[in-house]
Every structure is written in C-alpha cells, then in structure tokens.
Amino acid sequence: MDASTGPIFLFDGVCNFCNDGVNFLIRHDREGKFRFASLQSDAGKALLAKHGLQDLPLSTSVLIDGDKIFMNSDGVLETARRLGGVYALAAGLLFVPKPLRDWAYRLFARNRYKLFGKRELCMVPTPDVRQRFLDLA
Is the dihedral of CA 112, 52, 37, 85 positive or negative? Predict the structure, then answer.
C-alpha cells in the first residue's frame, strides 16, 4: 500500500488502549480510508523522520494526510471527524482551547499503561485488514 495515500494513523503499538482504538477505527471505517502504522515500526519511524518528528514520545497519536500533520488532541479529533457519522460530533471539542485539550490528552496518555496495560509486542492484524498496515502491506 502506498504510504502517500492517506490518512495514516500512527499509534503506540504496545499500548492496549491504542490498539483498541485502532481496532475501533478498523470496525467503523467502512470505506477503509485509514491506514495504520505503529510509532515503533520502520514505516512509522520513516514517516516521523520525513516530517521532522523523529523525537516524538510514544504517547503521541499522529494523523498524517499528505503534508498535514495532526498530533495529540488534534489528531484524535481530526480522526473522529474523518470517521464521520456520530463520531464526527467529537470535532466539536476543537472549540475547547488547544492548551486545555492537549493538557487533558497528555494526562491521559501519561497514565494509559497504568489504566489499560501494555503488550510485550505490537499487535498483529488479522489477514482481512493486513493491507491497511503500512509495515505489512
């Protein structure tokens, strides 16, 4: 799959909450428009480096669409907006000041392993969605 056809959602591949979020996107993205790569993967690292973001912490969720980068709360809300349907209503939270949204995002991200745990290895997608993961296509 061509990494230039996006949007591409980058996530922490060992975070249980993040993996559940990706699985949620896969189930609800009926058009199959989202692509995925873990931040720890070669594809994820290459995309981050391409955009000068190679030093991002694993707690950062990133949505890349061409030259547009959405991170932290912007990444989550833009992803919800693009998912459409009732999920697009979450984009209404963009009216909350970004510093407040990102503070809440960082607080949650800092505690995600304590709340939801983590895996020893990144997720292995099922064969029916394998082509949507950049490292495995």
Answer: positive
Any bridge partners for residue 118, and if so which?
Answer: 15
Q: Residue 32 region, left (φ>0) first, then alpha (ψ -120 to 50), else beta?
A: left
Does any domain span residue 109?
yes
Which letter, b or e, does each residue of 38-66 get, where b requires 16 or more Cβ atoms within 10 Å of its Cβ? bbbbebbbebbeeeebeebebbbbbbbbe
User: What's the pTM?
Assistant: 0.84
What share of the chain has pLDDT > 90, as a percent? 55
* Residue 63 token pair: 């949505």
Residue 136 within any structural domain of the chain? no
Distance CA 76, CA 63 (A): 8
